[in-house]
Specification:
The protein is mostly beta strands. The protein is built from no helices and 11 strands. Strands 2, 4, 5, 6, 9, 10 and 11 form a 7-stranded mixed beta sheet that branches. A 4-stranded antiparallel beta sheet has the order 1-3-8-7, with no helix packed on it. The termini are far apart.
Length: 125
């Protein structure tokens, strides 16, 4: 079983940047696609971005395109989410998750098995 741990969240002003990290334990990390999701207070958890097992394919939610970049390094068992031009509406707890597939087949939460504990991102106006 893969265990995931997010870090890098914090408080930032609108227009600023943050880089989230997700460290994975377990030998199977490199075989699976990874995703980032977020959940704002009172809202459902939503898809943010995903990356295939080898980094060759990425998918983004429309609301983060051209602002966020997902990447991974399988040798370091780590996936990152670089977030630029942050907006107050980006405020949420951000989670990384392990896909059950090696390629990106869907953005459905149900397709993602292991989850991290989340890291808080707060963007002030």
């Amino acid at each position: 079983q893969v265990q995931l741990a997010e870090s890098g969240g914090g408080l930032v002003q609108a227009g600023g940047s943050l880089r989230l990290s997700c460290a994975a334990s377990g030998r199977t990390f490199s075989s699976y696609a990874m995703g980032w999701f977020r959940q704002a207070p009172g809202k459902e958890r939503e898809f943010v971005a995903a990356i295939s097992w080898n980094g060759g394919s990425t998918v983004y939610a429309n609301f983060v395109k051209a602002r966020f970049t997902i990447s991974r390094d399988n040798a370091k068992n780590t996936v990152w989410l670089q977030m630029n031009s942050l907006k107050p509406e980006d405020t949420a707890v951000y989670y990384c998750a392990l896909d059950q597939w090696s390629t990106i087949r869907s953005m459905d939460l149900a397709d993602f098995g292991s989850w991290g504990q989340g890291t808080q991102v707060t963007v002030s106006s």
